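Sample intake sheet
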Amino acid sequence: MTKNDIADISMATGNWNKTRAFATVKFRNGLTLNGVKVIQGTKGLFVGMPSIQRKNKESGAMEWKDCCWLEDDEDRKAFQSIVIEVYNAKVGGSESSEGASRDDGSSFF
């Protein structure tokens, strides 16, 4: 996965407990992921995929489960890196982000 696979990322930033942003990611192949989250973890930011709340069959407790995911480790890491780069550009974050852009130099915003 590269930045060119993504057509657009729209993001609402804020501070909802550990969640720092909610994003919608539109891919060039027509797929749109709504409900992508940027979360502040103990080791830094990570990306949470869209999830739904379900009842655990064994315990009866409600739990959150991802409803979609990237199977390939490299694609998952690239996706997370791109979303966090866009987040950092939007909030003026990390030194590793010089502004989010695709591989062809055009901006996501």
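Comment: Helices lie at 73-91. Residues 26 and 32 are 4 Å apart (CA to CA).
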